[in-house]
Design goal:
Layout lengths: L9 E6 L1 H18 L6 E6 L3 H10 L5 E8 L12 E4 L9 E9 L3 H12 L4 E9 L12 E5 L5 E2 L15 E4 L9
Parallel strand pairs: 2-3, 2-5, 5-6, 6-7
Antiparallel strand pairs: 1-9, 3-4, 8-9
Helix pairs in contact: 1-2
The structure holds inosinic acid.
Inosinic acid (IMP) binds next to β5, α3 and β8.
Length: 186
């Protein structure tokens, strides 16, 4: 494993950086095709989507704009609360715009379902969803990513922007966090 210092805190690697970049390149081609001739605003959800936004936007060969929101739905635990709070709002007026929401992971789907409704209520013309990862077995609401990187098992993962208590975001691959690391805080 390439993370000597934290390798005993992680279980298996689910998606390598190389696999993620290859998949995002494919998704970028789909996005280009679907939005051909239309403006496109990428809205990233801080902080987890920083890596996927960065890699997706650079895989695109068309002009895009980017904006960011920060929401909180988790606190420091590993299960979703379902309560969404806006910590940082958009800088852009999205009325009449085509928005592609860029997310790290769809777990219960509660965050994205809330965000999509929120953006539509501000008059966005279209709101689609791109998620790097999805845990299909954890889904609690009816939400489908228009563009999906990988389905993964219902395990708590870190890396590629995903954290546990703000740690591990910088890891290049997506790895399962050893349950030992959070067993005491649940
Ligand atoms: P949802 O509302 O349950 O779909 O959760 C969405 C947010 O929870 C994601 O954007 C992540 O920030 C966080 N999250 C969900 N699953 C994981 C995970 O396995 N590792 C790290 N963060 C996660």
């Amino acid at each position: 494993m390439r993370y000597d210092d934290v390798s005993d805190e992680l279980d298996e690697i689910l998606v390598t950086e190389e696999q993620m970049l290859a998949r995002l390149a494919e998704l970028a081609r789909e996005v280009e095709r679907d939005y051909d001739g239309h403006d496109l605003l990428l809205v990233g959800v801080l902080k987890g989507a920083v890596m996927v936004m960065s890699d997706l936007s650079r895989a695109l060969t068309r002009p895009v704009r980017m904006d960011w929101m920060a929401v909180s739905s988790y606190g420091h635990g590993t299960t979703s609360s379902g309560v969404v709070r806006i910590l940082k709002d958009l800088d852009t007026d999205i009325a009449g715009k085509n928005v592609l929401l860029v997310e790290d992971i769809i777990d219960t789907g509660l965050t994205l379902s809330w965000l999509r409704d929120n953006l539509l209520s501000r008059g966005a013309l279209t709101v689609k969803i791109l998620a790097a990862l999805q845990k299909p077995d954890a889904l609690k609401v009816d939400i489908v990513a228009d563009y999906l990187g990988f389905d993964i098992p219902n395990k708590f993962v870190v890396g590629y922007g995903l954290d546990y208590a703000e740690n591990y975001r910088h890891l290049r691959d997506v790895a399962v966090l050893s349950p030992r690391m959070y067993a005491d805080s649940e």
